[in-house]
Amino acid sequence: MSSRDRRMGYPSLSPREAAFATGLSEKTINQAIDREEVQPLPKRRPDDGERMLGLPDLVYLRLRNNVGRLLSPEGKRMLRQQLTQAVRERRRPMVVTLGAVDVKVGPEVEIVERQLTQIDEVRSWVIIDPEIRAGEPVVRGTRIPVYMLADLAGQGASREELLEDYLALTPEALDAALLYARIYPRRGRPRRAPWKGGVVVREAS
Question: What is the tens place of the pLDDT at every residue in 71-83?
Answer without folding.
Answer: 788 888 888 888 8
